[in-house]
Amino acid sequence: MAVLLGALWAGLPVEKRIFCSVLLFSWAVYLWEAFLARRQRKVYRTTTHVPWELGQIMDSETFEKSRLYQLDKSTFSFWSGLYSELEGTIIQSLMFLLLATLFSAVTGLPWSLYNTFVIEEKHGFNQQTLGFFFKDAIKKFIVTQCILLPVTSLLLYIIKIGGDYFFIYAWLFTLVVSLVLVTIYADYIAPLFDKFIPLPEGELKQAIEIMAKNIDFPLTKVYVVEGSKRSSHSNAYFYGFFKNKRIVLFDTLLEDYSALNKEQPDGENGEEDETKSKVQSKKQGCKNEEVLAVLGHELGHWKLGHTIKNIVISQMNSFLCFFLFAVLIGQRELFAAFGFYETQPTLIGLMIIFQFIFSPYNEVLSFCLTVLSRRFEFQADAFAKELGKANDLYSALIKLNKDNLGFPVSDWIFSMWHYSHPPLLERLQALKEAKQD
């Protein structure tokens, strides 16, 4: 049988072998992901009681809620992943790029609606109405096209006129674009979707400024974003280059600021017709000391150079991909494998090489970056511990896990392959050792 298959494979034209290899690898990745998801869903189904090591940090009601939420999410991810694996479209120009993204947005809409208004709604996270959802989706599509089409046009033009060293110019162009987008995102793009307000003067802001000063973090502003109008999930991040750093806190992270912790009088919310006003039965968010511990972790990423390291790795990968693209773009067999026998459109070449030919490399790179990210997270936790925040970070991680219905038990293979952050128990164990020390 193996000899027969080998003979059939050897008899195929090069372009057919390329296409079959891409197709087989794509389905191999999908089946691997399905295998991992099945293992993790088994954990969700069979772990119905709080493990003894979690008895002091999670009650049985929260445990059951998180188990059902993660089970629903994993089932949804399986079927939406199958949809993504089967979806495909060929684009030959920027107009087709526009039509393709429109097609993708429309066909992906039912999945997004189901995720938001069935799964997230069922488990108490969704804060949107249908009107807010569609208004948001339209704005996202318009903003995406305003960025995507000009950038793609310029990139194709650079490739066309760049000569033998076009890959260097293309890489430099994408580097500049990425830096510009990172710079302007929080100031000009994000406010199109969410309201950003300065953190009011008070104990929390003063403590944040003191902590930033102690570690030489060049903080200029602290914002609170009204994430509670969209979802009850919480987050925090910083952005900016050089001496212009800013911190953004989701209001759902702050126990004293979250709109979900207090009733609003009728008519007080100007967007009441677009967003829901669900008040949580239990207080959500962290106390000021715990917020400082979370920020200590985030600032640890900056102090330890994790942000710069990620940028360097990303740009090295980008340069390598453009270089290999320059090597492969002249291979007619690649285009013939996907039905382009007479012409070799540059945009098609970008899609074929970056999306399909590089797919094995992308899988390996993704896994390596996941491992590196977990290492960075442990290091950032250790940095927060050095700031004297081990106890507060310990309690904050437990609160955030409960607020976001994170399931604390994971299949080890699924966790190793997918989780960019270490599982909760591993982080708590490391912090517990720090507390004992």
Compact description:
The protein is mostly helical and 437 residues long. It is built from 15 helices and four strands. The protein has a four-stranded mixed sheet with strand order 1-2-4-3, with helices on both faces.
| C-alpha termini separation | 62 Å
What series of H and E elements makes up the topology? HHHHHHEHEEEHHHHHHHH
- Number of helical segments with 4 or more residues: 15
Structural class: mainly alpha
In what order do the strands lie side by side in the largest sheet? 1-2-4-3
Overall form: globular
Strand content: under 5%
Biggest β-sheet strands, sense, barrel: 4 strands, mixed
How many DSSP E strands? 4
Contiguous low-pLDDT stretches (5 residues minimum) are 82-93
Mean pLDDT reading: 78
The whole-angstrom Rg is 24 Å
User: How much helix, percentage-wise, in residues?
Assistant: 55-70%
Provide an overview of this structure.
Helix content is 65%, strand content 5%. It is mainly alpha-helical and 437 residues long. Strands 1-2-4-3 form a four-stranded mixed sheet, sandwiched between helices. A hairpin with a 5-residue loop joins strand 3 and strand 4. Helix 5 runs antiparallel to helix 6, helix 7 packs parallel to helix 8 and helix 8 packs across helix 12.
